[in-house]
């Protein structure tokens, strides 16, 4: 999270999760990002020798500075594959 001259910016890297599977909510001064990384394909998890990414549900909350006017927040989620 950083701020520039015009905005407070939050960048998240969430590999393996589709944009439509990410839920972003803002309540009061708390921004919450939720989603789920699913194990893809027909390969069962117990067949893997090693998995370096965690699968399953996740949630992360961020407390925004009091200077952020949450009534006028605009933004978007951008995903790159």
Key terms for this structure?
81 residues; mainly beta; three-stranded antiparallel beta sheet
Tell me what the structure shows.
By secondary structure, the chain is mainly beta. It contains no helices and 5 strands. It has strands spanning 2-3, 8-9, 23-27, 30-37, 56-63. The strands form 2 sheets. Strands 3-4-5 form a 3-stranded antiparallel β-sheet, with no helix packed on it. Strands 1-2 form a two-stranded antiparallel sheet. Strand 1 and strand 2 (8-9) form a beta hairpin. The chain is elongated.
| SS field, number of helical segments | 0
Task: Kindly state the number of beta strands.
Answer: 5
Shape: elongated
Helix content: under 10%
Largest sheet: 3 strands, antiparallel
Distance, first to last CA:
21 Å
Q: What string, H for helix and E for strand, traces the elements in order?
A: EEEEE
Q: Which consecutive residue ranges, at least 5 long each, have pLDDT under 50?
A: none
Strand order within the widest sheet?
A: 3-4-5
Counting copies of identical and different chains, the oligomeric state is single chain
What is the residue-mean pLDDT, rounded to a whole number?
A: 78
Gyration radius, rounded = 16 Å
**What structural class results from the helix and strand content?**
mainly beta
Beta-strand portion reads: 25-35%
Helix-strand blueprint:
Layout: E1 2-3, E2 8-9, E3 23-27, E4 30-37, E5 56-63
Antiparallel strand pairs: 1-2, 3-4, 4-5
